Amino acid sequence: MGSDNDDASGKRKGRKVWLFVKNASMALTILMFFVTVILVLDAYKFISFRHAKFARKKVLTTLQYMDPVLIESHTGMKVLTHEEFEKLSTDLEETRKKIREMNGQVQQKYSEVLKATMDIQNMKQEIEELKKLIDGN
User: Is the pTM of this model over 0.90?
Assistant: First the structure.
């Protein structure tokens, strides 16, 4: 009348085991999904996960051998040739040098303004002292 999976009360023996397996597999699937997301985000340096350097190295070595068109379509960023990269690097260095020079000029002007401000304050103090001296006589 009953199958081999039925016990004396008519309930199935394997139902609890199957429920446990189903819940465990769901939990494992969710855990693996989150681990994969973390590793991918770490590999592309959106986040930093302490022990996931291997994923970052794997992505970087894989990107070396990929077609630039695939990388551009995947990331949405333009892949530069070596010459373009060198040109941009030299432009960046020249711009940084100009910025340092301009920063030095700004610092000189600032020090001149500060010196002039101090001179004006000293002159104001002398004028106040002279006014007190004149009023005192």
Answer: no
